[in-house]
Amino acid sequence: MNDLKKIDTQGNIFGIALNDKGLYEALKEQFNQKPYVNEPVKPVLFIKTPNTRNHSGNVVVKQADDVLQAGPTVGIVIGKSTNRVPKSEAYAHIVGYVVVNELSLPEDSYYRPAIKAKCQDGFCVIGDAVAKDQIKNVNQLELRVFVNGELKQTGNTANWIRTPDQIIEEISEYMPLNEGDIILTGTPLGRVNLEDGDVVRIEVDQLGAVENTIQEQGV
Question: What is the mean pLDDT of residues 117-125?
Fold first, then answer.
């Protein structure tokens, strides 16, 4: 699986919200108040629809009245279909990992991530997948966000609440995951706002980088 071209990343794209310890702790008090009442006990899922797919080097369109934010994350690439997979067997269903910029508008509800915030055209920039056997430790990767060459944010997969094997076990309890599907493992605390003309670069140790220019349209 060392040939990157053999790794299929053309399946569904699922995201996990609130999977960073720092982000979760910052919002924890809110979850015990209305309308939430209780903290989430299962992964909070959202989707990235096919129109969100984008590539490094392409333009990302921002509507003039919107606040666009970068979303550095690691994607788990499924290589073997899953159905009720126990945690002990989950890594056998992973073929590789990929750097992703999961762009989004600010959200009011983390329990129900908004379609408008997550699913606009080009809002999911996907890099080249790297085979899992090329990654030394997926649970110790640094993520970096650069805007116009300036470092604006860092994060680390060591801060994941749920590791890839846990995520696959919990999701596959109630839905299948198929070859080529990507699961976005969550963004760190503190999203970076992007403006017209900005060049945003997301880097992840051992996985590479994606870079795009923001282009504003509309009045």
Answer: 96
Phi, psi of 134 (to 5 degrees): -95, -5
Would you say the pTM of this structure is higher than 0.85?
yes
Do the Cβ atoms of 156 and 120 come closer than 8 Å? no
Q: Could you read off the pLDDT of 62-101 as tens digits, one per residue?
A: 999 999 999 999 999 999 999 999 999 999 999 999 999 9
Q: Which amino acid is at 55?
A: H
Using CA atoms, how far residue 7 sits from 1, 128, 171, in Å, is 7, 9, 21
Over residues 163-180, the pLDDT tens digits come to 999 999 999 999 999 999
* CA 80 centroid distance within chain: 20
**194 Cβ contact list (under 8 Å, min separation 6):** 60, 62, 68, 69, 70, 103, 147, 200, 214
Q: Are 191 and 147 in contact (CB under 8 A)?
A: no
Question: Any residues with CB less than 8 A from the CB of 215 and at least 6 apart, and which?
Answer: 59, 60, 61, 62, 196, 197
Mean per-residue pLDDT over the chain, rounded: 91
Distance in angstroms (rounded) separating the CA atoms of residues 49 and 182: 12
- Return the closest-CA partner of residue 138 out of 43, 208, 74, 71: 74
